Amino acid sequence: MARDVFALVDCNSFYASCEKVFNPHLADKPVGILSNNDGIIVALSPELKKLGIKRGDAAFKIDKQFIRKNGIYLFSSNYTLYGDMSNRVMQTLHDFTPDIEIYSIDEAFLSLKGFKHLNLTKYGRQIKRTVYRHTGLPVSVGIGPTKTLAKVANRFAKKHPFIEGVFDIIDHPDKDKILRWMEVEHIWGVGRQYAKMLRRNGIENAFQLTQAPNKWVQNKMTIVGLRMVKELRGISCINLEEDIPPKKEIVSSKSFGTSVTELLDLQEATAEYCLRAVEKLREENQVASQITIFISTNRFKNEPQYANYASARLPLPSAYSPDFLHAAATIMKKIYRPGYNYKKSGVMISDIIHQSKAPLDFFQPCYLDDKRKVIMDCMDEINEKMGNHRLTYAASGIKKPWQMKRQALTPSYTTSWQHIPVVKAI
DNA sequence: TCTGGGGTCCTAGGACCC
DNA sequence: TCTGGGGTCCTAGGACCC
Description:
Blueprint: E1 6-11, H1 14-22, E2 31-34, E3 41-44, H2 46-50, H3 64-70, E4 73-76, H4 79-94, E5 100-104, E6 107-111, H5 120-135, E7 139-144, H6 147-159, E8 166-168, H7 175-181, H8 192-200, H9 206-210, H10 214-232, E9 250-260, H11 263-283, E10 286-297, E11 307-318, H12 321-335, E12 342-354, H13 371-386
Parallel strand pairs: 2-4, 7-8
Antiparallel strand pairs: 1-6, 1-7, 2-3, 5-6, 9-12, 10-11, 10-12
Helix pairs in contact: 4-5, 11-12
This protein binds a DNA duplex through helix 8, helix 10 and strand 9.
């Protein structure tokens, strides 16, 4: 059997790079992208990183003076734009191999198993050039015999400018040196807790981790950790997942732009999240029978705290929005306590199955059989054609005092005719 | 004034059954 | 005084990812 070969293609500072594509004057400027509610920094251009700002920093804590002095640009996140740019990148990658796993909005694993006769580094460079030509986005390419080592190679490429964005660890003469360079916290599968634990035990880099006994690793990090360590040793354990597995749960939750105190506001905000969640459920042709609602106050504030959640089951699996809206409002009434400033609520839909597997009931019509599905299909179609949520339920409110803040949103250049960039003749 | 959102997997422990 | 054992299912919590 031929040995596996993986390439990890990863967009550099993806969100920030997307903004730069449509604002060329930002090319060498420090750019940051904010989370919902313009709360924290979620993506940074290299120039912004150099100024000492980190992912996760609260936007309001960054000194205004500092922003002005360094010419920093901060934007609200524009997921419509990023989603569309992501599709374009993935389309391009598909031209290089049919075996591709879209791992996240800005990353894909490619299987290059049948390509060993090629110079893989050269091929990687070709991928990088082509993606740039098609989308204007810079990517890094890491190549390795396992997914985990492709990740290592990718990081190595990113951190060493002289490599020019493409690194193949397979034929590197001194792999141990690369693994020694890789600190444990940056290994794929090692998070904050495991990194601390490993360092406590004298393991500081990937090479040292490969030397740890299997038993010890499994004991401390479960079989998931053991799999990762084997991958670092060059034994491929994590396969390419080409088809996207159906979701097992769907969560929609958001902090409010301004905190709310009234039950009705909470119900309306949650109804909106609920509608989004059920919409996603329908997109995958699934039905669900369990709904969970959760609410909480602002944990950063020095004021009375409260958090609670509760679930309900639907009599039959459904994807009909009102079934869920009704359950959500009832649960909310149960968990709501007056006298608190609520900052966040959310909906989780679980017990999900494909609609074709939904059980039938002798006494009541199921979702697929009656008008409910027709109504939902119709609504989804109109919303897709006319723009998001042109058609909605009054349950999600009219005034929406809780709506999130997005004060520095850029246009949806590629998905909206109103926002399409204009080329002017001079 | 202002601190994100959406997922998955594994394990331990309790409930329940025979 | 003596107080089973094993299997399965479910849930909560903890870890990770982007």
